[in-house]
Amino acid sequence: MSILETIASHLERGEHDQVRALTETALSESVDASAILDRGLIEGMQVVGEQFRKHEIFLPDVLMAAKAMNAGLEVLKPHLSAAEIKSQGKVVIGTVKGDLHDIGKNLVGIMLSGAGFEVIDLGKDVPPEQFVDAAAKSNANVIGMSALLTTTMPGMKAVVDLVKTRGLEGSLRTVIGGAPVTEEYANEIGADGYSFDAANAVECVKRLVEEA
Predict the structure, then answer these.
(1) Are 109 and 205 in a shared domain?
(2) Using CA atoms, how far apart are residues 76 and 193, in angstroms rounded to an integer?
(3) Is 29 exposed, middle or buried (0-12, 13-18, 19+ CB in 10 A)?
(4) CATH number, domain at 197?
(5) What's 178's DSSP letter?
(6) How many CB atoms within 10 Å of residue 103?
(7) 126: domain range?
(8) Alpha-carbon dihedral of residues 173, 188, 162, 209, nearest 10 degrees?
(9) What is d(CA 59, CA 65) in angstroms, rounded to the nearest whole number?
(10) Which residues are paired to 139 by β-bridges?
């Protein structure tokens, strides 16, 4: 097993100390930093995402893997130029206005980062204008919105409508998700995508970015 495969394997098991040490070892052996990122850290996180999608692992396992990935990234960052980090796209995420639940949203952020996306997390209780302003300012590809309460779901429609009002439809896509949210509701409000869990959210965002 190569050192990159070993890094990926330890990351999948959430062993952050080993991932940090192996990343340092790989750099000392002149392994290219972008290769460590792509074939070690991101590849390992993609396996974690697939296992989570298949319900082979659970939320604590994903959080441990994310901690391991961040440990490796801390070591790598000084050795990576902006050009070497090939971002898959930029995503603004947040929980809509009036909703303070963010576990699902946080997990989506972890999975998107692990898949190579640049994530701008606005947190919870985010008003429509903040979503669209942040996306426009950062030239984001996608806005991802989460809700756990049915009473806050209209905030998703407000964001979708604002994207259209500002003439950003097409260049800026919208994805919604959360326990009470359905694909029918996404279609009803004109959102570009719907995701039923974090792993599916990554697939949905990838598809929308590729279609743009």
Answers:
(1) yes
(2) 33
(3) exposed
(4) 3.40.50.280
(5) S
(6) 11
(7) 90-211
(8) 0
(9) 10
(10) none
| Residue that finishes a domain, picked among 79, 110, 143 | 79
> What does the alpha-carbon distance between residue 41 and residue 70 come to, in Å, rounded to a whole number?
9
- Judge whether 84 lies within some domain: no
> pTM score > 0.85 for this model?
no
Dihedral angle, C-alpha 73, 77, 78, 83, nearest 10 °: 150
Residue type at position 171: S
Rounded Cα–Cα distance for residues 166 and 183 (Å) = 24
Instruction: Report how many domains make up the chain.
Output: 2
- Read off the tokens for 143: 């806005």
d(CA 65, CA 73): 12
According to DSSP, the residues that pair with 140 across neighbouring strands are: none
In tens digits, the chain (212 residues) has pLDDT values of: 999 999 999 999 999 999 999 999 999 999 999 899 989 998 999 899 889 888 899 889 988 999 999 999 999 988 876 546 678 999 999 999 999 998 889 889 988 988 889 999 999 999 999 999 999 999 999 999 999 999 999 999 999 999 999 999 989 999 999 999 999 999 999 999 999 988 889 999 999 999 98
